[in-house]
TrEMBL record:
Residue ranges constituting the Lipoyl-binding domain according to the UniProt record: 1-74
Cofactor note: Binds 1 lipoyl cofactor covalently.
Gene Ontology terms, MF aspect: dihydrolipoyllysine-residue succinyltransferase activity
Reaction(s) catalysed (UniProt annotation): N(6)-[(R)-dihydrolipoyl]-L-lysyl-[protein] + succinyl-CoA = N(6)-[(R)-S(8)-succinyldihydrolipoyl]-L-lysyl-[protein] + CoA
A Pfam family that the UniProt record links to this protein: Biotin_lipoyl
Protein name: Dihydrolipoyllysine-residue succinyltransferase component of 2-oxoglutarate dehydrogenase complex
EC class: transferase
Source organism of this protein record: Trichlorobacter lovleyi (strain ATCC BAA-1151 / DSM 17278 / SZ)
Amino acid sequence: MEIRIPTAGESVVEALLAKWHKPDGSMVLKDDAICEIETDKITMDIYAEVSGRLVIHVQAGTTLPVGTVVGRILEADPQAEDQLAVTATGAAGSADAPTSPAVRQALRQQGRTAAQLAGSGPGGRILMNDLKRTDTPEPPAPALPAALHAMLVKSEETPVYRASGCWKPARPAGDQNTEKATEAGPDPQAAPGEERIRISPLRKRISERLLQARHQTATLTTFNEVDMGALQALRTNYKLAGQPVGLLPFFVRATIEALQAYPAVNARIDGDEIVYYHVQHLGIAVSSEKGLMVPVLRDAGQLGLWEINEGIAGLVQKIRANQLAIADLEGGTFTISNGGTYGSMLSTPLINPPQSGVLGMHAIQHRPVARNGQVVIRPMMYLALSYDHRLIDGREAVGFLKLIKERLENTGWLAGLN
């Protein structure tokens, strides 16, 4: 099986081979995640279609055209797959050598694991003296059964991808002139005490989109605040009834109501025309380790509260598992961003072009507010709406945000939307 950079959308012509999940020469099982690639839109894993031995042609950190072969799996005979699975399981189970509680505590303090040490005690048991040795070799990997080795094809010459774009056969082991695909000298521009890392395709695309939002829209932000007491009480009731639901689905439902009442916020400018959408495809901003992703919850106006809750959870799970597709990111008509997850009290969110608006949620904080002539402490949240002033007037923007506030503070309208 050849491992190729897959097609990830019509506009994607290259991808970064971000990392290999398995080392060169290791045994992999069918459906194992073997490497991670990153484009200017998504990050995704490539999975093994067969079981066998992994041969890496291209080292991680290389940007390659779509369709490039980055490695291959030397396929095992079908009769060997069960034996390979047993071997892999056995290797995982033997990773930790026997240790005492005192040794385990010392390992944790040193930031090490038992698998990194070869014990000198009976049966390979790790002793306290072993922790003082700095030259302890790592235990050898468990040997594969001879029958399995015989079923696997071996290659003595593994081609390596050069940065220039050509291929060359690998040099024999021990050759001091062997070149590595990612080998490079120190960056001459890096000053002492700093490190320079090439910007990833996804981060580069995020930067371009942020600049586009600034330069191509007349962005203005309006603010309001909402008393979250009624909504918190409603969520508590759902939880006690065994039906817990997140906070975001309520904001999605309130936003849908506001988009239907103020259609200009759910529209976009296309040249000399205004495109009004009669559906609500809501982008949900989610932060990942690779950067900000905005997957789209489609036809949100047709979904009930629980369907919205499940839909958002499914999108988040896709991001965490690197299974997000290009289609999951396209077609949004409005975006919701929750900076409150990280403790933000107030912000001015940026529009996601070609959309014309974005709702910013923030942290809930107990603050003194006036109620019926009395100062009381209430759970309050600031809301922000950034909008394209070319299309949306201030009156519409303020009315839109005020309607969301009213819906969240008076939750009776949610009764029929479960």
